[in-house]
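Sanity check

After download, print the first record. It should look like this:
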Amino acid sequence: MPRIPLEDNFTDVIGKAQRGHQLTDDALAAKAGVTIEELRAVKGGEIRDHVIQAIAKPLHLHRETLLALARREWYPTQPVFPRGFAMFNTPDGDMTVNAYLVWDGKTRQAAAFDTGTNAQGILDTIAGENLTLRYVFLTHTHDDHIADLPRLAATGAEVWASELEPHPGAKTFQENAHFHLGELSIKTLFTWGHSPGQTSFYITGLAWPLAIVGDSLFASSMGGGLVSYDMQLRNNKQKLMTLPGDTVFACGHGPLTTLKQEKKHNPFFAR
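Expected structure tokens:
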């Protein structure tokens, strides 16, 4: 698969934090001790080191990682799963969106997580690997993530969504629900804030612990707090950043990353 670009650049991160903290440009410039012209130049994409570092503090962002993101100095090392895991990156206008498939090597039972805009790759993998799709789990119900749900549902798989964000025809789960596919264990974590029922799925039994996080978290960024910025940030910190250190994050947009890398390189979480 070609290298997938980061979902957010440094101006996206600044914008998400600024909106989350409800700071106007005037207020942010005053708190940071920069001029409004300097702030707007940076928000327009100019890399002015002293301004980026100055605005990081009132936005509660890590200065060095925000600057590194602006300079394009980091991209996550991609973890390798020798078996039982596949990622699908499909176009959505001028963006792309991810969906995932995991399966147990003995029983050949599989679970899909979201659909992306085109589930053909998922269906081809199911056929090629001689799998039975047992579950389709929805991280959330924004259109880009469930655009091809009817085709996956037509396989006869059970469709599941959060009780906080139900979807027609889907069964609903509570937080800390457990599902099993042979030796694989899947646990639900409510990491809402981007959407009312945004859910992450923590999976063990593969080569690495895996958290399919939807739009809760991106490599070097996080999902926008469309419902609640404070709760999105809190849920990420309490439920995702406390998982085992070798956990792989499979994000709704952008490349794979890992908990260890995000603690070091993500402006929202590095310290």
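If your output differs, re-run the checksum step. Summary of this record's structure: The chain has a mean pLDDT of 97.
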